[in-house]
């Protein structure tokens, strides 16, 4: 299954040579930073600048119930998903500690939880403490039998983050 996000244009590679030269001229052995250098190059191309910057870094956690769980393949029942979301929002999960220690924003997106989250449902708001209630439906379909999401549902889940 493949989907396209129409807002993302292909990279303009006009700056690629200049960016690579700038990276290579830093005081370090050439290519010594490995993947980090490739990421710096990509970031410069995405931002179309020789001096890319990272602002408002965000970790996005997509939450949902997998339809394949009905086939008995999951170690935990779907009720655990609601408990995990409440733990994310309460700051009690490892990703919360990682985000906090690194000054990152944590965004939790409902990409198809099968049950309502009681404490959020009563709030009647789309946004709540870093949580986007943008469900694509009550769980996904069983991917052992059919695609878990349609391309439109996948795009909708991703669009919730922008």
Structural description of this entry:
By secondary structure, this protein is an alpha/beta fold. The protein has 6 helices and 4 strands. It has helices spanning 16-24, 35-47, 79-90, 94-101, 118-121, 151-159; strands spanning 58-63, 105-110, 127-128, 131-132. The chain has a 4-stranded mixed β-sheet with strand order 1-2-4-3, covered by helices on one side. A hairpin with a 2-residue loop joins strand 3 (127-128) and strand 4 (131-132). Helix 1 (16-24) crosses helix 2. The longest helix is centred in the first third of the chain and has 13 residues, at 35-47. The mean pLDDT is 83.
Structural class by secondary-structure content: alpha/beta
* Main β-sheet, spatial strand arrangement: 1-2-4-3
Counting H and I runs of at least 4 residues, what is the number of helices? Answer: 6
Net shape: elongated
Estimated share of beta-strand residues: 5-15%
What percent of the residues sit in helical stretches (DSSP H or I)? 25-40%
Mean pLDDT: 83
First-residue to last-residue Cα separation: 22 Å
* Main sheet attributes: strand count, strand direction, barrel closure: 4 strands, mixed
User: What is the C-alpha radius of gyration, as a whole number of Å?
Assistant: 20 Å
Run of helices and strands: HHEHHEHEEH
Q: What's the number of extended β-strand segments?
A: 4
Which spans of ≥5 residues are poorly predicted at pLDDT below 50? Answer: none
